Structures are given as C-alpha cells and as structure tokens.
Amino acid sequence: MRILITNDDGYQAEGILALAKALKDIADIVVVAPMSEMSGTSSSITIYNPLRFKVIDNDLGIDIFAVNGTPVDSVKLGLSKLIQGKIDLVISGINNGPNVAMNTCYSGTVGAAIEGAIWGIPSIAVSIGGYRDLDYETPAMFMRDYVQKLDLSIIDKGSLLNINVPNIPYKDIKGYKYTSISTHSYLNNYEERADTFRDNYYWLSDYEKEGTHEDNSDVVALDLGYVSISPMKASLVDDRLLLKLKNQN
Amino acid sequence: MRILITNDDGYQAEGILALAKALKDIADIVVVAPMSEMSGTSSSITIYNPLRFKVIDNDLGIDIFAVNGTPVDSVKLGLSKLIQGKIDLVISGINNGPNVAMNTCYSGTVGAAIEGAIWGIPSIAVSIGGYRDLDYETPAMFMRDYVQKLDLSIIDKGSLLNINVPNIPYKDIKGYKYTSISTHSYLNNYEERADTFRDNYYWLSDYEKEGTHEDNSDVVALDLGYVSISPMKASLVDDRLLLKLKNQN
Lengths: 249, 249
Known about the structure:
The structure is a homodimer of 249-residue chains. With 249 residues, chain A is an alpha/beta fold.
C-alpha cells in the first residue's frame, strides 16, 4: 500500500511526523505538505501565484516534499507532478485540534482529504480532540491499527472519512463509532478590540452557539471518549432538495 | 425583504455592483464583501490575523462594507457585527466565471453562500458562465426575476442554491433547470515553467479531464443555454456510506 500524507499545519508539524512514523512500517509513505501553517484554508487553491516545492532531508527514510501553497495545492501538485506511480490512500493530519461539526467546512485538513476524494482515491482526515498537551501517540497508534484493517473498497469514489481521536491515552479510548456531522456551528463570533491607534479590529473567537449536538454526531462520540469516524462526500449536491424543487414545477 | 450581498471578487467588482443595482428596488440591500480579489478561497477563514472593515461611499444609496478577509469572513463579520436586524437571504456573486462541477469545492463565491446556510439563512451563489466579454445584465435580470418569485421557505435550513447563468443575451436564455453537480474534475493539471533563474515553478491550469458530464448536471444545462440551479448542502456528511459502514460491523 502506498499512502500520500499531507496536512494543514505544515510539513514540520508534530502531528504529520507522528503519523508518518506510525505508518512507515506498514506502507510506502510519501509526504507532500504545505511549507507553512495553513489552518482554516478549507479547500482553497492558489490561482494567481506560482507553486514551488522543496525536497526535505529527513531521517525517516521517506520522501518529503514541501509546497508553498495550501493543503489542496499540495495534494494536487503531489498527485499530478511530484509522485510517480499509484497512490492507494490519502491521509491528511494529524491536525492539532478537532475538526468536528460545521467547522469541518473551514478545515484545511479536511479540504486536503476532500481533494483526495475528488481524485477518486480513498481519503481520510484525522485530527486530535484537544488544543493543549496533545498526545499524538494515541491518534498515530489508532491510525496504524485502523488503516491495516480498513477495506479501502468500502469507501465509495468521491467519499472520505473524517476521523477525530480523543486526546487521552490509547488504553482509555473506548473504541470507535461511525458518526454523523453535528449541524452545530462554532466560530461565529468576533471579539472587538482596539489597536495602538484606538482603531477597532475584530478577532474570530471559538464561541460555541447554544444548541444540542445530535446523539449520533461526531461531537458527542468524541466527548464520550470514542474515536469518531464521519463519512463525508466531496460533492455538496443536496439530492433531497433537488427532488423537492423539481416536483414544485 | 433584506438581502446580504457578498462575493469573492471584491466589493468593487463589476458583478457585485450589477447584482446590487438589479435588486435594490425590490429589497433592502446591504453589501459586505472582501476588500480584494479572493477567488479560489473556498470556505477559508482568517484565524491568525485581525479583521477590519471600511464603509464605502457609493451612489447606489446602500450600505457597503469592505472587509480585509475572505468571503466567509465577510459573511461572518457582517452577520455578527456589521448588520443590524434580520437578513432574509444571502446572495454571493455575480462571479466572473462559472462555478460548476467539482470546481464548486474551491469557489469563494460558493463558500460565502455555504456560510449563509450555516447561519440558517436561505443562500444563493450566482456566477456567469463565461470568462471574456461578460454580460452581467443577463444574470442580474435573471436574479431579479427569480428572487421575486422564489419561495424562500422551500430552501431547507443548511441548504443553498448554486446558480450559473449562460453568458448570452437574456432573450436567448432557454429557461432554468434544477440540476445536479457534475462529478467531473477540472483544475487538476499544472504547467511546469522556468523562472528568470531557470528554477521551475508550477502554474495551475484549467485543464478538463476526460469524461462525460451527467445529463442532469449543471455543466450540461449551462452548455444548452439554460440557467443551472443546483441545490447544495453545507454539511458534507455522506449518509449512504454511514449506513454501509455501520452495517458492516
């Protein structure tokens, strides 16, 4: 098995290195990741600027390419130019912080996995459910186990898995659950502050709107100590509303 | 009716002004849009920098706010801080160039409309199906008609419409079709070029992969001279794959 690993925290991030180390004995690994921090970049692409890459020396014995672009740029350039031969699986992560609920829309980690799905390759985004004192050993060990037993053919073309692993020791993980994505919104609030010249600026805050997460959702599973695995589609088409709109005519 | 208009080409773009002019007699309009060109920014958000806004003088008699961020930043800051009172509809556009097939994933125009849907507001992205000699009159007139007869309650919470209008005179438009999103991929190719110092760089090209667009797709409707209206969901959850994964256990 040949795995393309990417992320949105940059090729030097602790999470991507933990993932590469955990998987390198069970698969051929190639890393193509952004040169710098790209959190919150969703599925954005570089249109008006050129892309360049650097080959990164490393002691892991794997190919690491750093791209001066977004996570999606890295996957695109990797698959079209940098990598020779077939990729069986794209994994994006391990992201430092959870990607759950409607925040999945903004995530560069998820964006990279969506790109893999657009290319028709089974793809996985993986994130850790905490912000401080992160233990990447747990998600790395989980992914090593999960990837070995996953039947890649079950992931439909154009689909991907969004995995969130609780930030607790591996032995305390209760198992994993296939979940839906909470429809709850985060990140809709700004703090208003003043700068040196007393002009106002606005800072996005991780404010949680009131509301209840659905029982079968990613957020609830993670809170209960389970690994949450949410199947997603690259295409946003709303088949139910399409039928409704067609029938009204 | 009160409409928030935004885009990804910037508040000064011809398309957004054409849209605002066409709608200002049938609704209260407020424009909150990026200060600069933001094409290809998808649903990206500004996390590590502050947002600021400018109030823009104009002779349209409407409020125009320019935000130093992405389309999603503009919608978020608009809805949480800049706009007083309720917004009934978010419209993002008119984008200069089509947003069809899997390119919808990268579109800042679509990203802004997804954000409106996340806030629970009926939302529409609108783009023109051409790149040169654009006639914004056609999509502007279409939107003026369509918005007046659209029953907003038919758009489910969390859903949006992605509209593409052919770049032809309004009288030549054959009508509109509710469509699916073509699963065809564009933008997966890079041209390799050399710079002044003979170092290579890569430039994303609008290369169309071989394959056939589905009969009921946005691309086919647009090519046939119809306005394409594709219903979309903000949430990417894949319910079918979720069921399949749960049943295998």
